[in-house]
Design brief:
By secondary structure, the protein is of the alpha+beta class. Helices cover 67% and strands 14% of the residues.
Length: 197
C-alpha cells in the first residue's frame, strides 16, 4: 500500500516538474522570439493583459482551459478576440502555438516564468506579498527597500490579495517564504494544543 502511494506521488511530482520545464521552455522561446529588451518587455505586458483578461472574465478562462475545443477552433477564436485587444503579431502567433499544442491553459504560469527570467536578467527578484487587503504604497516601498537591501537585488512586488490568511502577511521571494499570517499562527496553536494531550 505504501509503495503504491509512493509511486502515485512520484508520478505527480514528475508531472509537476514536466509542466514547470515546459513553461520555462515556452518563456525562453518568447524571449528569443522578441530579441531586444524593449520587445521582450512589450511581450510580457501583452501576455500580462491576457492573464488579466483570464482572471477577470470567466468565459475567457473557460475558453483557455477547455480541453474539448479543437486547437484550430481556438486559433480562430483567438484571432477574432485579437481584433478587439490588438496584440502584436508575434504575441498572437505565440498564443496560436500554445493553442496548437494544447497549452493555452498554461499562459498564466508561462507569464510568471517570463517575468522571473526578465527579472534575473536585470538583477531583479520578484517578491510576492500576500495580504488580506491591498498594502499602501508607502508600506510596500518600505518592505521592498528592506528586502532589496538584504538580497542585494532590485525588488518588484506583486501584492496578492488572499482573505484566507485572515491577517498579517506572507512574503515569498525566490526559494524563501516568511509566513507571518494569522491563519498559520492559528494552525501552529492548534498543533500545540493537540500535542499537549
Amino acid at each position: 500500500m505504501l509503495k503504491k502511494s509512493f509511486n502515485k506521488d512520484l508520478k505527480l511530482t514528475k508531472k509537476i516538474l514536466n509542466f514547470s520545464e515546459i513553461c520555462v521552455r515556452y518563456a525562453k522561446a518568447l524571449i528569443s522570439l522578441h530579441g531586444d529588451d524593449k520587445n521582450i518587455k512589450k511581450a510580457s505586458e501583452e501576455l500580462g493583459s491576457i492573464v488579466e483578461l483570464k482572471n477577470t472574465c470567466k468565459d475567457f478562462e473557460n475558453f483557455l482551459a477547455n480541453p474539448i475545443l479543437a486547437p484550430e477552433k481556438k486559433i480562430i477564436i483567438l484571432k477574432k478576440i485579437n481584433k478587439k485587444i490588438k496584440l502584436s503579431i508575434s504575441t498572437l502567433n505565440f498564443l496560436c502555438v500554445l493553442s496548437k499544442h494544447n497549452r493555452l491553459f498554461a499562459v498564466e504560469r508561462i507569464h510568471h516564468v517570463l517575468k522571473d527570467l526578465i527579472g534575473k536578467k536585470n538583477n531583479e527578484s520578484r517578491l510576492e506579498l500576500i495580504t488580506v487587503t491591498k498594502v499602501d504604497n508607502k508600506l510596500e516601498k518600505k518592505i521592498g527597500d528592506k528586502i532589496s537591501e538584504l538580497v542585494n537585488k532590485k525588488i518588484k512586488i506583486d501584492n496578492i490579495i488572499d482573505e484566507n490568511i485572515i491577517g498579517g502577511m506572507i512574503i515569498k521571494i525566490d526559494s524563501l517564504m516568511i509566513d507571518c499570517s494569522i491563519s498559520s499562527k492559528l494552525s501552529e496553536l492548534g498543533n500545540l494544543e493537540k500535542g499537549s494531550y
